[in-house]
Design a protein that fits this description.
heterodimer, A: 298 residues, TIM Barrel, eight-stranded parallel barrel, two-stranded antiparallel sheet, 9 helices, globular, B: 253 residues, three-stranded antiparallel beta sheet, 13 helices
Chain lengths: 298, 253
């Protein structure tokens, strides 16, 4: 039975931030203007008793009352050949029933093999076999959650030989087969385009942009070795100019969408992250010419 | 094919036996090895960071470099079995007990147990708490037969080392180097979550320890009181019980 304590709060086409634990006390105290917030689902998988779930979950419920909340899963492992872990699927379904997030998303990647969780978003070979596996897992997740999920394009450092299709066709076909939406991570496109030597613009053109329910931007690290320069998706610095420019081109093609700024390592003060959010908000304004539906909380 | 690829990556990342994964990646061997190593470092490094967040005092006691090395060894030996990192690390104290490079710090495992107990207390579910008035409403002749259920966040950590003192002098706000006399004897620490949400710890006397341990074991209040006074004849039983109730250490029925 659905938990009806929360009114529906869809994610608006404005700029939000990925909220991490270290920022939660400041965020709760200041209640800054942010269109919406996103949390990592796995950080809130605490024992869900009938009378609560501990202070961490209570903080999320407090936030959920004042902001639209999106839940971003990092561990479901949609690419696992072994299928989804039923216990994890149930834990996530319980959390979503309780929080009623505006959006739920996962990654085009895998993290679980032989029952071991590797805590990284590992790359998939873009084969028909992998597509069937991911589609089956997405179907299963959407059924368990009773809703559509968004699937995020990955950043990667390895592209397997013997692929049947490029990443963009893989994503487009996944949308067609499962009815899932896309979470378009513009930084990931930039990172992978550099690492694998493709052009980001045809990537965008090949995707069904109508299916994009959310966009991510974040900082990356430029890893220079004598042999090569790789871009590492570490979410540990301001968004680069190239990624802001790619975001602008994405919005020009797709129209206004919810945009999220993520920052996960070398966390700066909350005000720095809010400054990045302002930049995203101005880009959204520039491409729409109208006031975004930012929710200002008293 | 996909299953084989994922098994090969798992082995390449956790066991540092990369050959099968490298064969699947193909291309220039140097490039493939460098890029697989990125994933290996991400996995082991991120899990070591997750452990450091759960065991900050252990990290302070051994230093960040030593901690990272120990954590990476633990991760390779006992990787998480579920994508729920809040529940990962419960076996780290036992791993530290047997970790030879740390044998000069015999208290390390018990300090880690205390940190894990605090972690569990923070994430435990909530439950309505027993009040003094609840207990006062029980007829006196029925009190001894009463069973008190501990609140889900209560934990008990007993050690032959002064783990509470070691923990306190290694908090971030404690800037001066403090000496803890290891020969001063062991400490039993009660960990619980106050009604406001803060995790609290206090040391228990032998009688307090016996009382909480007996109640945790499901014994009646009468049996627990007897065990407590046996362990510590001078114990002020009423004050001890009142303190536990005031801390919200029991669940209401």
């Amino acid at each position: 039975m659905a938990d009806l304590r929360f009114a529906p709060a869809p994610i608006p086409a404005s700029a939000g931030i990925g909220l991490r634990h270290a920022h939660v006390p400041d965020f709760l105290a200041e209640r800054p203007a942010a269109g919406w917030i996103e949390v990592h689902s796995e950080n809130y998988l605490v024992p869900l008793g009938p009378a609560g779930g501990g202070p961490r979950l209570q903080a999320l419920e407090t936030l959920r009352r004042d902001y639209p909340v999106s839940c971003h899963g990092v561990g479901l492992s949609l690419g696992s050949a072994d299928g989804l872990d039923p216990a994890h699927l149930r834990r996530l379904a319980d959390l979503y029933r309780r929080i009623q997030p505006g959006l739920v998303s996962e990654h085009l990647a895998w993290s679980v093999a032989d029952g071991t969780y590797l805590n990284d978003l590992l790359p998939l070979p873009y084969t028909e076999e992998a597509l069937q596996t991911v589609a089956r897992n997405v179907d299963r997740a959407q059924e368990a959650f009773g809703r559509q999920i968004l699937v995020e394009n990955p950043s990667s450092y390895i592209a397997f030989p013997g692929a049947d299709m490029p990443e963009w066709d893989f994503l487009a076909e996944l949308v067609r087969r499962t009815g899932c939406g896309l979470l378009l991570d513009v930084n990931n496109i930039h990172v992978s385009a550099h690492n694998h030597g493709f052009d980001p613009d045809p990537y965008l053109d090949a995707l069904p942009l109508d299916a994009v329910g959310e966009i991510h931007v974040a900082g990356h690290f430029i890893h220079e070795t004598p042999a090569e320069t790789l871009l590492i998706d570490d979410h540990g610095s301001p968004v680069s100019d190239a990624v802001w420019a790619l975001l602008a081109r994405t919005l020009a093609r797709a129209g206004r969408r919810p945009v999220l700024v993520e920052w996960d390592t070398e966390l700066p003060p909350l005000s720095v992250l809010m400054g990045e959010r302002e930049k995203a908000e101005s880009l959204l304004l520039a491409w729409s010419g109208t006031e975004p539906e930012t929710r200002h909380v008293a | 094919m996909l299953r084989e690829l994922q098994a090969a990556f798992r082995t390449g990342i956790l066991d540092d036996r990369p050959d099968a994964a490298l064969a699947l990646i193909g291309g220039a061997p140097d490039t493939a090895a460098r890029r697989l190593a990125l994933y290996r470092n991400n996995t082991l490094g991120s899990l070591a960071i997750a452990l450091a967040a759960a065991f900050p005092v252990v990290e302070r006691l051994v230093g960040p470099d030593f901690f990272r090395a120990a954590a990476r060894r633990f991760v390779a030996e006992a990787p998480p079995q579920a994508p729920q990192l809040l529940a990962y690390g419960g076996d780290f104290p036992a791993f530290l007990d047997g970790f030879q490079p740390a044998r000069s710090l015999p208290y390390l495992g018990d300090v880690a147990r205390l940190e894990w107990a605090r972690n569990e207390a923070w994430f435990a579910g909530e439950a309505a708490r027993l009040t003094a008035a609840d207990l006062a409403s029980v007829p006196p002749d029925r009190l001894a037969a009463r069973v008190l259920t501990l609140h889900p966040a209560v934990r008990l950590v007993a050690s032959t080392f002064p783990i509470d003192r070691i923990w306190r002098v290694n908090q971030p706000e404690h800037e001066t180097v403090a000496r803890v006399d290891l020969a001063a004897g062991g400490e039993t620490v009660l960990v619980y979550r106050a009604a406001g949400g803060a995790v609290v710890q206090e040391t228990l006397s032998p009688g307090g320890h016996a009382l909480v341990a007996a109640l945790a074991d499901g014994q009646t209040l009468g049996q627990a009181a007897e065990a407590a006074v046996m362990a510590e004849p001078g114990l002020d039983l009423q004050a001890r019980l009142a303190g536990l109730i005031a801390g919200g250490c029991f669940a209401a029925d």
